Every structure is written in C-alpha cells, then in structure tokens.
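Re: the multi-chain job from yesterday

Posting the exact lines I submitted so nobody has to dig through the queue logs.
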Amino acid sequence: MTQRPELWSLDDVRALDPETTRIWASRSVESRVRSELPFDRWQPDAPLPSMIKHLVAVGGGTLLDEAKRFVHDEAPDVALVAIPSVWGSGAEASPVVVLNRDGKQIRTGDEYLPAARAVWPELAESLSERRAIDACGDAWAHAMEGFLSPLATNELRRELAEVIRTMIDLPLTNDPRWFEPSARAAALQARSSVGLVHGIAHTIELPLARALGDDWGHARLCALYLAPVLRLDRAVGTKLHALFLEFDLDESKIKSAALRLFDDRLYQATLPVLEAEWRNVLRDRCTRTNSVLVRADHLAHFLTFLP
Amino acid sequence: MKNREKLQNLLLDVFLLNPQELRLDLRREDVDTWDSLGVVSLAVGVHETFGFHMTPEEATALRGVGDLIALLRTKGIHLDAEA
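And the result, structure tokens for all chains:
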C-alpha cells in the first residue's frame, strides 16, 4: 500500500488532466504558479465543479491546512496535491490541521493527509532573510518538541533525532534543503505532541497580529520562543539533557541554533501580549504536553530571558 | 517544604485551579482539566516533584487526589514528611 502523501515531482503535477484539475494558490505565488501549471484557478468561496478529481493547493501552512479541511469536509472524492511555498509548517505531510476560527482549532487524523505532495524550491526564492529564519524556527520547533514530548516513544525519538541531526547541519537561511526535514519533522511530531513553543504561538499569534501586524505569524513565534523554552525545559529537570545524551544529539549545537533563531528586539515586542495571555497559554493543549510541567510562575522566566 | 505543600502546589499548577478550589478529596470528575492531557501533565509533574515515574496504567487509573496520595505512599512518599 502506498503511504500518504505520495511524493510527486512537479512533472507528475503537470501531467494531471487540466479538465479535471483546479489550482488554489496563495497570492504571493499565484502569478508564478499559474504561468507554470496549466490549470484553472479555484477560490474557496466558489463551489468546486463536480468533474474535478484533483485540487492542487500551493501556499503556506495556513492555505494548505484550509485545503486539507475543505477536501476532508466538502470534497472527499477529490485528491489533494499539496505544494508548500515555504518550509516550516510541514502542513503538506502532516495529519494535523490548524484552523483560524475565533482562535485556533486543531484537528488531527490521517484522513486529513493530502493524497500527494510535491516540492517546488523556486517558490521560496524571493523569501526575505527574516522569513527564512522564521520558517527554520517552525521546523526546528516541530522536531524538538516532538522529540522531547512525554508522549514520544523511543522509536519516534530515534527518527526525530535523525531529522534534528540533519537540521543541525543546515544553515539557518533561505535554503531549499529545508523542505524535506521540515516535512519529516511535522509528520513525525504528529505521532507524539508539541509543547510550550506551540502553546505560546497558538495563543498569542492572533492578539499579537492584531497589535503589531501580520508579520507576527506562527513561524516567527516558534523561532523566537524555541531558545527560551529549551532553557526552561533544561532548568526544570534533567530529562532534556538525558535525552540528548541517549540519542546522541549535540546539545551545544542545538542551543546554538536556537539562539541564532532568536532576535531580542522582536522577542521583547511580544512580551506584553505574552504576559496578558499567560493564563490562556497555560490552558493550551500544546502547553499541557510540554516536556516539563509549565507552571504559573514560569512567566517570570520569559519576562527576564536574556540570550 | 512538606510533601503536602508540594502536592498542593503541583495540583494547582497541573489542573490550573484557584487555591480555594483545591481539596484533597477532589475526584477526577470534579476537575474539568483532569482530562487526558491533565493525566499527561500530572505524570510529568509528579516525576519533577517527587522523582518517580508513574506508569501510564497508574496515571490513568487515578480516580481522584486520594488515589494519588495512596500511590505516593506506596512509593514511600508521605504527605506529612519533609521533602
């Protein structure tokens, strides 16, 4: 049996029948996508014609998750082909769906997996340096929190440790080699849980975007909070250090990568919202499966964190 | 700090209770955050606080704080002892 999602080449995508295929692309890449793929455009406010067999979704994690929800809920006979415009979320390979609906809704299940995914590295060419770092932070957070999760098995940790070693060797910059470990980290993480980095990101993303603008998305928060959360995990117990030793991971290199993802000026700007939302962070389901127990008084750790 | 106080602090943090809601006879059904995620964070917190790993079977079998106190006692942890 073929495992979902199948990994397709762009030629596989181009070979789809234009009569029975539609494309949904995010605005940032739409003109390029439509110039290179011979399919008519579809927008989610319009019905999908009944003869459609494939929907090709091209964009970031938000668009891909919406496409996964749409196909699951409203077009179950349509095969979804997911093409990420940037690495980080791993939405193209993950059974997790995060929806922005009056706050975050999270659904999980293999039935949400796309039928196929493809990598199109050139779509990320115009990514700014900061957004590339943010995307790396998202991928790192999936790998680290999945690995450290109290729900992770040893087998899963072995697989995630391999991904982490790959990430350690990659530069934190715009490099298409991030697509594959990012997809793998997201798919593997779904078999355990994420932790406080995601709890913070899911909770403060919307209030922060309202306060500071759309640049303050999920990926940026993952990049900014990975180092402070890892330091908290390290301070509270011995588990983190023991796991790094057991799975032959170089703690100093992980710490160094986390600190390079960190930007103190950007981090400081998030703190008023973190402080206001801390009670909700504690209640978040991701926070509650963090590697160490997150306590009410741990807010002080974040307010006083220095790299 | 006595183990009783450590347990009380742990329960406040794991189940996000206000101090006035905390009683040592609380049952699982009395606490809306004592769900499957609460079981996970309780197991993590017990390990950090008292230094022993609850098995998944032990963690899911707890029907209330009284069962947790009894489980702690079987591990040699008594509430009125100094930690």
